[in-house]
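Question (not urgent): is this output format expected?
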Amino acid sequence: MHSIAVVTVLTLSLAFFARNCWRLIRMIRMGLDDFSLAHLASRIEDVLINVMGQAKLLRHPGAGILHMAFFYGFLLIQVGLVEFVLSGVIFDAEGHGFSYAWLLGNPAESWLMKVYWISQELAIYGVGLACVIAIFRRWFLRSFLPRLKKRSVDAELIIGFIAMLMITLAGTQAAEVVMQHGVFAATDGHWTWGRPFTRLIASSMSPEFAQASYSFFWWGHFVTIMGFMNYLPFSKHMHLLGAVPNYFLRPRGEGKVLKTVDFETSEEFGVGRIDLFAASDLLDTFACAECDRCSVVCPATTTGKPLDPQKIIHDIKENLYANEVNLLEWAENGRQGAPNCTVDLIGGADSEGSIHFDELWDCTSCGACMQECPVGIRHVPKIIDMRRHLVMTEGNYPTELETVFRGLETNANPWGLGANTRFDWADGMDIPTVESNPDFEFLYYVGCAGSFDDRAKKVTLAMIKLLRLAEVNFAVLGKGESCNGETARRLGNEYLFVSMAGTLIETFKTYGVKKVVTTCPHCLNTFKHDYPGVDPELALEVHHHTDFLSKLLTDGKLELDGKKGGTITYHDSCYLSRYNGITESPRSLLEAAGADLVEMERNKDRGLCCGAGGGRMWMEEDTGSRINQERTREAAATGADTVAVACPFCMTMIGDGTRELGLDEGLQVKDVAELIAERV
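Got this back:
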């Protein structure tokens, strides 16, 4: 009867679990199929580093090590789970359940069995200790840990499940010791090898208690396993099943490379309905661990704005659930036309939707959410895709962007200043252009800010000075330069971006541009990661000016005066540090310039956004506190007299922050190039 009961419960549990997993798979397949096995080696590497290696989690060592205990303990216990289940189905002549010792040999002779037993002891009591620590953190340290300030009943229930699994498994094995079941009856105490905690608990049990409690512990463990397994697809612990496929199947580029739009065949632009997301986007939502790591680093969330990246992912999943019945019917009928989605994806002031209009426009596209996400979710591309729908399909966007789009369309710059004035910054300076120096090696792409913004023009002149001193063979496009379209793309106007990119690419080809130097991280990122999607044949070697100047110094082409600089703190641009991994060259330049470099609390790839990315440079902050002021306060707290930047957007935002907070007299804002130019 025992075996029949075990097999019955196991069969029903697995069938129910399989049914629920198939339901999730069917919903994921409602999206546009973008799964691929291309770049197989990098996909496997992704899984090994981020899932098996827990790399993202270990960025926060305390929580990371705790999670590793759960993770590896869980994996080890799965090995023991097979033995445990079989012990309820297969018995020897004496009525003792199956043991790996039947195959591996008695622990007295088998090193494999000894290793297995050590692994189980570590797993049971290691995970048990991790449960105690996790409960202590959540109940007593909540106010000190930003991620845990929002109570999660789901998380606490999961910890309870895991704790119950460890208690019942430990109780089962201790009772077996006392009753001398199977291998635990081995002579000379060889069963104790590697099982000190099991022996300790067994020593506290009387034979009568062990006999009476054994079935309770065994069935308690088995039923809890089956219950936990079937709770997974409905809980945040779904990431146990979703993390590996999410890392393995996600598009290459870690969410930092945006999808292109096929304007020739697409009937709808962007994502305004749940089925228009890619299947990998929907898989993202089921991989989410709801750990809040994305939210606590989001500059919009932390300054009191509606956007919460974790909520965005959760709301997409909820919209999928809400439209599930109609979507499945639509799929079964051959996906003809558009499905009848009764719950809108995007809502606004006059309409209901899973995600509010304002949330989408709060995003600075800084990438901090994606950087910290332990399961590889790509938040920013989803937000950009929904912006694309609002801009290109509905024509529904903040009114302040009208001027920006018009300026880009008519004068190829977001200020809308006359295109014929783009080269006015060089009046009387005899700057080499692609016409006057057709044999140039490097194109210095000045960019819109460097051409039109009075403060950024000083950085342009500093770069010209340094390029000339280093005798670099360079040229500029002059009046032939135009905006590369980065702002249009991040604001969702993909059509305008493609048009502008096409114009600039043709200009590059006309003058044979192969190597580009730019002072703007947004331009750097656009040339490196966006332009290949517009023209795959375009091959550009792109340098940010901090990397370029650092190499000039290393090669001895620039010499500094060796004077001592002031106390400087460096603000990392998101598109330089997170999107392109450039953090050291700006710091090495500042140190070479004699700076006493002090770091802000959040720095390098964990730096706080200035608030200008994602097109927010051209929009006002109407809710919460100002992001640029938050960052400026961090800079001031270092005691530095200068904030060094390496981005024209950051220059504007931090500069505004110092003035808004009344700190501008004691806290200068300068580009790294300006500080180097002062020392040559």
